[in-house]
Design goal:
The protein has 168 residues and is α/β, with parallel strands linked by helices. The protein is built from five helices and six strands.
Length: 168
C-alpha cells in the first residue's frame, strides 16, 4: 500500500519534502530536532513547490520527530500563514494528514502544532498512529477523487397562478 512513486523535492539534515504523485500529496518528513531555520526554509519552499507539483493533500510524517522549537511553531502559525501565496495554497488544500511521533515529547509538540494549524487554517488535521493507516486513507481519497463526478441538475420549481375567480 506504499506509494508507487516518491520524489524527494526538498532535503535538509532533519526535514525532507517528498511528492507523492499517485495520491496528489506532499509529504514532509521530520527527523530528530529540526532547527527553526530548517522549518522556515522547508515551509517557505511549499508555495513554489505547489506551482511545480500541484498537490491537494499535505502529509506530515512525525514518526522520527523529537522536538519542534517554539519559535518555529509560532512563525509557521502566524507570519508564514499571512503570506498571500501561502493563503492561496491553504485554500486549495483538501486535507491534512499526520503520522504520530514515536517519542512522547515529539508527540506533544506535534499535537500543539496541529492545534495551531487547525485554528490558523480552519482545516482539520487527520492524525494516524502508523504510516500504513495514513497511506490507506490517502489511497481511499485517491480512489474517491478518480471517480467521475455526477453533475447536479437544478430543476426549476413551477408555480401555478390561480385566479381568485376559480377558487370557488
Amino acid at each position: 500500500m506504499y506509494p508507487p512513486r516518491e520524489q524527494v523535492v526538498f532535503q535538509s539534515s532533519n526535514i525532507d519534502i517528498i511528492y507523492l504523485q499517485a495520491w496528489d500529496a506532499m509529504l514532509m518528513k521530520h527527523r530528530g530536532r529540526p532547527t527553526v531555520e530548517e522549518y522556515k526554509t522547508a515551509f517557505s519552499s511549499l508555495p513554489e513547490l505547489y506551482e511545480t507539483y500541484p498537490f491537494h493533500y499535505s502529509v506530515s510524517d512525525e514518526t522520527e520527530l523529537e522536538f519542534i522549537p517554539t519559535e518555529a511553531r509560532l512563525w509557521v502559525s502566524t507570519v508564514h500563514f499571512l503570506r498571500p501565496k501561502v493563503r492561496r495554497l491553504v485554500t486549495k488544500q483538501q486535507g491534512m494528514v499526520s503520522i504520530k511521533a514515536q517519542s512522547g515529547i515529539g508527540r506533544t509538540m506535534a499535537a500543539i502544532f496541529h492545534v495551531m494549524l487547525q485554528r490558523t487554517t480552519g482545516k482539520q488535521v487527520r492524525v494516524f498512529e502508523t504510516k500504513m493507516e495514513a497511506y490507506q486513507y490517502l489511497e481511499a481519497l485517491a480512489r474517491e477523487d478518480s471517480k467521475p463526478k455526477q453533475k447536479r441538475i437544478r430543476r426549476r420549481k413551477t408555480i401555478q397562478v390561480v385566479s381568485r375567480t376559480n377558487l370557488f
